[in-house]
Amino acid sequence: MNRRSVLLAVLGGLIYIWTGTLYISVVYNLFNFFDDVTVCLITDCFYAVLQAFGYFFYMVFLKKSKKAMGPAVPAVGAVIVMVSGAFSFFSPGITSIIVWGSIMSFFIGTLMCYAITRITSDVRFSERGKAFGIIYAVGSVGSLVLSLLHGGKALEESFILIVYVILALGAAGLGVVIYGKKDKNTFREEEYLHPVKIRLTKKEAVLFFIIFMFFVLSNIGLHFKIIGSAEVESAVFSRAFYAIGLLVAGFINDKDRKMGATCAFLALGFGLLSPALQINAGTSMLVQAIAYVFLGLPAVYRMIIFSDEAERDHGKLPIATLGVAAALLGQAVGTVAGIRLESNMTVLVCVMLALYILTGVVFFGYFPLLFPESKKSDMLPEGDRREMAFEQYVSKNGLNSKQAQVLKYLLDGASNGEIADSLFVAESTVKYHVKNILQATSCHNRKELIEDFRNHYFNT
Q: Which residues span the domain enclosing 427?
């Protein structure tokens, strides 16, 4: 990974650390008023849905205004999250805790949506899986370290809010280092391709359903009774192994997107096997460790899949984080189902098995749609005729030599990052040329551009 990609991933990780641990601190306050099941319903269902709404809100904002990618958005979002989280943390009453916690959850959604959209916009395709893995691994390990302070009671103490403020300021400082005080690399108007769309295609609707079902299944699976649960169901234990799974998932997805998707689906099947593998407290701990490693595979996949869709058509940048929103909704449904069914393990396993089969039928049934194979009939032949058609197309649309260079790579399906590597230029420069090429050819996106050239080729 190049330096910029690593810094962006660390920036996302810092945001994850302080927002995630602030969230946990608020949860500790809820335990003063509610039992475990009620707290689970509030946090994993109600607050999760509010976070999803935060994602949807940011998507619509990004569709309506280019200012959504500006530096003011994370700054305002961070202040609201910090203030509302502090009020919820110190609130003496149930109503105020939930109200302030609701505001915090909503704006955590918008803040994380901003960070993930930035990764989509600024990190090349071949490094995006590792970037997403690093974000959540850094967040998991960072929150683990904070939770160990002060004898494991740090997240319940008021001084921890000062730590959150320091981390938030550190994230802001890193943002300045990456983008500069004037945020020169903000998604500028000339790079914002129109029309901007949120309406889903059939493929994207199927992907949304698949991610939703992945997290319905994973959250039902978390309600299996674990032998020796008092010893092994600690947040410390789970976050450590979850971070490993996230990093592994990042490398798998960058190596092969199909492999990453298949591994994410197969990883969910481990939840079905886990009850049979729990023989005693020792094996139970091993089973849970493996389960949390596997949980990292669908966690990264949910971010990768819509991020890739957004890159294929830059007018769809707002949907880049739709997979995370789908996962949050699936988490809410899965938590409710798990709580209702956890008293009867037989029914729980049967429900999971049925849902797993249903998800598998959809997943593999639509696999050719999700990952279409390149067909020879769709490829333009190489040779003199193509070169002649290319030169005519460049001349017809008044493209300069730099734009012609970029166009050659675009017609071969190269991403911005791959073009930047090949031409030894900055990715922002490639974006600028792509914008000008699309304007000159009156195309809205790369797909239209390739089709326009195909029509030109077959008519010459």
A: 377-458
In terms of Cα–Cα distance, which of 4, 353, 59, 52 is closest to 178?
A: 4
What global pTM score does this model have? 0.79
Claim to verify: residue 241 and residue 307 sit in the same structural domain: yes
Count up the domains in the chain and report the number.
2
Determine whether 265 is exposed, middle or buried from the number of CB atoms within 10 Å of its CB (0-12, 13-18, 19+): buried
Contact (CB, 8 A) for 460 and 387: no
Q: At how many degrees (to 10) do helices 257-277 and 281-312 cross?
A: 160
Q: Closest Cα partner for 152 from 47, 242, 24, 281?
A: 24
Contact 383, 389 (CB under 8 A): no
Q: How far apart are CA 286 and CA 396, in angstroms?
A: 65
The domain that holds 382 is classified in CATH as: 1.10.10.10
The first and second tokens of residue 42, run together, are 């509030």
According to DSSP, residue 383 is labeled S
Residues 6+ apart with CB under 8 A from 376: none
Kindly tell me if the per-residue pLDDT of 440 is higher than 60. yes
User: Phi, psi (5° rounding) for residue 424?
Assistant: 60, 45
- Look at phi and psi of residue 251 and say left if phi exceeds 0, alpha if psi is from -120 to 50, else beta: alpha
Tell me the per-residue pLDDT of 315-346, one tens digit each, with 9 for 90 and over.
788 888 999 999 999 999 999 998 888 888 78
Q: How many residues does the chain have?
A: 460
Judgement on whether residues 425 and 318 belong to the same structural domain of the protein = no
The CA distance from 338 to 41, in Å, is 11
Q: Worst-scoring range by mean pLDDT, 38-47, 212-221, 414-423? A: 414-423
208 and 293 share a domain? yes
Q: What is the pLDDT of residues 363-404, one digit of tens each?
A: 999 888 887 664 444 455 556 667 788 888 999 899 988 898
pLDDT tens per residue, range 157-191: 889 999 999 999 999 999 888 877 544 444 443 34
Per-residue pLDDT, 186: 42
Distance CA 309, CA 68 (A): 19
Dist CA 303 CA 129 (whole Å): 8
User: In this structure, are 224 and 344 located in the same domain?
Assistant: yes
Neighbouring CB atoms inside 10 A of 367's CB total 14
Neighbour-count burial for 230-255, b at 16+ CB within 10 Å, e otherwise: eebeeeebbbbbbbbbbbbbbebbbe
Q: Are residues 12 and 27 in the same domain?
A: yes
Shared domain check, 447 and 317: no
Q: Which amino acid is at 330?
A: G
The residues, ordered by sequence, that sit 6+ positions from 68 with a Cβ below 8 Å of its Cβ are 58, 61, 62, 114
Question: Six-digit token pair at 37?
Answer: 């099941």
